[in-house]
Amino acid sequence: MRIAILGGDGYLGWPTALRLSAKGHDVHVVDNGLRRRLHTEAGSDSLTPIASLPERIAAWRAISGEEIALTEGDLTEWAVVERLFRSFEPEAVVHYGEMPSAPYSMKDRAHAVFTQTNNVVNTLNVIYAIRDLAPGCHLVKLGTMGEYGTPNIDIEEGFIEIAHNGRSDYLPFPKLPGSMYHLSKVHDSHNIHFACRVWGMAATDLNQGVVYGIRTEETGLDDALLTRFDYDDVFGTALNRFCLQAVVGHPLTVYGKGGQTRGYLNIEDTLQCVELALTHPAQPGEFRVFNQFTEQFSIIELAELVQKAGAHVGLDVDLGPVDNPRFEAEEHYYNPVHTKLLDLGLRPHLLSETLIESMFAGIERFKGRALQAHILPRDRWRPSA
Amino acid sequence: MRIAILGGDGYLGWPTALRLSAKGHDVHVVDNGLRRRLHTEAGSDSLTPIASLPERIAAWRAISGEEIALTEGDLTEWAVVERLFRSFEPEAVVHYGEMPSAPYSMKDRAHAVFTQTNNVVNTLNVIYAIRDLAPGCHLVKLGTMGEYGTPNIDIEEGFIEIAHNGRSDYLPFPKLPGSMYHLSKVHDSHNIHFACRVWGMAATDLNQGVVYGIRTEETGLDDALLTRFDYDDVFGTALNRFCLQAVVGHPLTVYGKGGQTRGYLNIEDTLQCVELALTHPAQPGEFRVFNQFTEQFSIIELAELVQKAGAHVGLDVDLGPVDNPRFEAEEHYYNPVHTKLLDLGLRPHLLSETLIESMFAGIERFKGRALQAHILPRDRWRPSA
Questions:
Q1: What number of other Cβ atoms are within 10 A of residue B330's Cβ?
Q2: Collapsing DSSP states into helix, strand and coil, what is residue A323?
Q3: Fewest CB within a 10 Å sphere: which of A37, A303, B111, B381?
């Protein structure tokens, strides 16, 4: 299959490109280097020393004999998107190509405007390109479980049957997004749903939980293939950050009471899910939503798990609660459905102390690169007066 | 009250400015002249010959002795918004300042991107300005009933109690917007809801139906105060277009079967509703949604009403069904609640043959200015291959 991977230089985009290339697909990655640039501006960096995108692609060619095509360009520019679609003629698009950080989007007005403009415009460009240049192309879009927020009812996969005053309809699940970034993903979801309803586009929206892990089968083959590992306050996510903190001796940054419960999945499972979506595509006109995670944990449960695994390997891990910079419920009901990907054949890699210990080992190799000044959160959801 | 009216040069913005000024409020209008510019580019125009914004303001000063302040600027530019908030210190903002046309937004990709960027960014700028420069300011935002689409259940005012698997929650009503423009309004609603939830902003979202009418109490005082009247395929709306078509002898442009049912209201009632929202403000942290219309009609009912009123005054009106350029259900359930504004004291001006005949008279004066070439629809929701 000819598959374009948007955001193919990222934490998940790059391992996805490798996996699909390894499986024999014709892969074309697109990236504008935004994440690397934002790290440079902030003085932060990936824990893992990652090769440039052309270097990575050359390394993969040398190791596997497979060719990955490359566009270094910005998807908010129509000329970039149009050239990609005309020259590559993708049969599927895996769309990771967005600004993915809630704290970044909440820094101030300009960051909010950038986040929403960047994400909404590049997705509009993609759906128009599919409509006009590749009508049969299947869009696999990375969404986020954060679109739903924490309602007081079970969260369904994208839609819910609502009975009301003696009638009923199957309608989009209401959204309570928790940041300017999460809002941008809700906007995308509405735009894509429209393209399916009105233009007959086929789309799968993967509302993903928090991903953890430092290696995949392919990135582990050679250091030149390593994927990035963000542990800083802006781009790092909960479990990855805790593992890094444990290794470098920083108290775990548990925000507030730590009762915030979310869905989580192993990076290997992200690759499985994306592949399952691609090989079992949505039908024309279908807007299919999968809740993409395998287990749910509260922050404090994760912190205690990391503490316990740390004790096994001789790491003395402190739980250091910090003032919650976010505006979110710290104790709440949470029960999202996540059966559709299991029905397609997903076989989860569940979280265990062993797995956490293997993450410690992966981090240990590069711990000299860790910048402690970038661990504590700085961006507050409600700026003080 | 110090009230900023964004989009204060428009069909509704200008009469709202006059009404609030007449009631003794301190009014500041902001407009970038977008609508006039888009008409110039398209070769179309308002039926009514409207004065420039500075001329209108001067005429109002001469007639009423009241001063309306003016900013000619683009709300997507932060400098414009910041200067407005710092200098005027609004206590309320009435936000009409968006690109309001579904057909315009559906012309092509570039128009969709412009519509969503323009509307989302200017609203983000406004909510950040309120947060940082005028925390107590009440935002009265014009939304649209078109955000809901036509679900198969009763439409509530913004939120719905959903019972599911033995639990329940009061959640945002699901949205099925029918164009790139309507999508932009859904995006705005989510952003504003977030600002209320997280920053404690007070906002009223007026999900307005289709407005009709050619004059208000104040615009009728002098021709220099006339508000615009759009009848073209891009900016004109159903009943106004039908009345113009009846007067100039054009068959009524009933799209498809004409079973499309929507909420409607008189332009005088828009002014009443906005004033009611301002004088009964939302509370800090409250995101209040009012469905702002007084009656519902199907397109064919409106067309027949216009035909009947035409017969009374000697106009021979043909119903000329045209291929529906939109993608929408032409027969559907429709029962939206609209009691909150009535509860605040709204006294509707209902539609009648007499009222339509008075619109005919208002149109008759300027019918020599009507451009028949701009009546039939040109922008299709699903471009042919």
A1: 16
A2: coil
A3: A37
